[in-house]
Automatic annotation (TrEMBL):
This is Wax synthase domain-containing protein. It comes from Lichtheimia ornata. GO terms for cellular component: membrane. One of its GO terms (molecular function) is O-acyltransferase activity. InterPro entries: Wax_synthase, Wax_synthase_dom. Residues 103-126 are annotated as: Disordered. It is a multi-pass membrane protein.
């Protein structure tokens, strides 16, 4: 295939998948209430259906994962827009659903803080230029620091043979069979690699926007103020992950230490509506609200996998369909139990050990479907070195593919 043909093939996928979002934007951009929720709901449904109709064709698995993820982001934004409009709340454009990801929750300000904030003088150009240089150096440092880490993690996935996939992990787990330690080890490394890919997202964002800000600082310093404030707000957000290895419970892991990208959307779409159904039983309402969030998250991840492989392979290949939802159901149960103190209080080190073991034994439900489609074999960050690949054989639990 020629490069032109491949680009045209990808264009079919991306362009067709943006049509529903474009329609929704046209009908809501003027914040009017003329368009009925029935029409908007049909567009939301179309937004999720279009990526599925490609059945894994037009583009590679990464392209389909990007399209499905964006369909999920925008779909949640559309639903939230419709809910806010129905409840008479101020509406935010649906495509800004991620504007608040990992933002610090609003804290009440004292009258003194409000006065100080209102009297704060705008930064001068030299200060903004200094901040720009500092942020750019921080982003570059993080990239350089991540290179050897990703060289090992992605190299491990590219080089090492996969664990046996027959029988599927669900059969091993729920039949009470012994789980081989090498299998758990492989999935643990794969899980860490996945987390590290997510960790790189804000780093890449920081580098790209710092470069743009540097350009403005050099050639158009008078126009950089608003863009500087946007980057400054981003830099002040909490990290995407908060020391996952210190999680003392499953609830602590998912409510505080895992990324909160979808927190506001899941809260408004799933948690709060379910919780309101049980006004006289608040504990039950909270538990079911939490479970609804994890079910929604599982369905979203299964949807992404469905779009990546196509509905025929998703349905026919054992160990694929429903695995993501099963994983998140287990995490939801663990979160509810550990949050409501259903288990006795224990020393922190023991709590961390039990949390680690729970995650270790449930992680394969999430990872195995991606191994089945061999996504691990193309694991890489563009531009990152692959120099460690020939030397990773000794750490491969099932041997290296390079030895064959």
């Amino acid at each position: 295939m020629t490069i032109a043909y491949l680009l045209l093939d990808k264009l079919k996928l991306y362009s067709s998948s943006t049509i529903p979002a474009l329609l929704f934007y046209i009908l809501t951009c003027k914040q009017s209430h003329d368009t009925s929720n029935a029409i908007l709901s049909a567009i939301v449904l179309l937004n999720f259906v279009v990526p599925i109709t490609h059945n894994g064709a037009h583009g590679d698995k990464i392209d389909h994962s990007v399209v499905a993820t964006m369909a999920s982001y925008l779909g949640f934004g559309m639903i939230r827009y419709m809910v806010d409009r129905h409840q008479g709340k101020p509406t935010v454009p649906f495509y800004r659903v991620l504007d608040t990801w990992n933002q610090r929750p609003d804290q009440p300000q004292s009258s003194e803080e409000k006065t100080t904030s209102s009297n704060q003088q705008p930064l001068d150009t030299s200060t903004m230029q200094s901040n720009t240089f500092k942020w750019l150096m921080l982003g570059i440092f993080r990239v350089l620091l991540s290179m050897p880490v990703m060289a090992f993690l992605d190299g491990f996935l590219r080089v090492c043979n996969e664990p046996p996939l027959d029988p599927p992990y669900t059969s091993l787990m729920f039949s009470g069979q012994s789980i081989p330690i090498p299998t758990l080890y492989y999935h643990a490394i794969a899980s860490i690699a996945l987390v590290m890919h997510l960790v790189l997202v804000p780093t890449v964002w920081l580098v790209i926007h710092s470069l743009k800000l540097s350009y403005l600082a050099l050639f158009s310093p008078k126009t950089m103020s608003s863009y500087h404030d946007e980057v400054a707000e981003f830099v002040q957000r909490p990290p995407l992950f908060d020391r996952l290895w210190l999680a003392s419970s499953v609830h602590d892991m998912w409510s505080r230490r895992w990324h909160q990208i979808f927190r506001s959307a899941f809260r408004d779409i799933a948690y709060l509506p379910i919780r309101r159904l049980f006004p006289k039983k608040p504990m039950l309402g909270r538990a079911l609200g939490v479970m609804s969030v994890f079910i929604l998250s599982g369905l979203m991840h299964d949807y992404i996998l469905l779009c990546m492989v196509g509905y025929q392979q998703y349905i026919s290949v054992p160990g694929s369909m429903g695995m993501q939802t099963t994983f998140f159901l287990l995490q939801g149960l663990g979160t509810v139990i550990s949050n409501h103190h259903a288990i006795p209080k224990m020393p922190r080190i023991l709590a961390r050990l039990l949390t680690f073991l729970f995650l270790l034994y449930t992680a394969p439900f999430f990872i195995e479907p991606y191994i089945r489609i061999r996504l691990n074999r193309i694991a890489r960050v563009p531009g990152y070195p692959q120099t460690l690949d020939p030397y990773l054989g000794p750490v491969c639990p099932y041997g290296s593919r390079l030895d064959v």
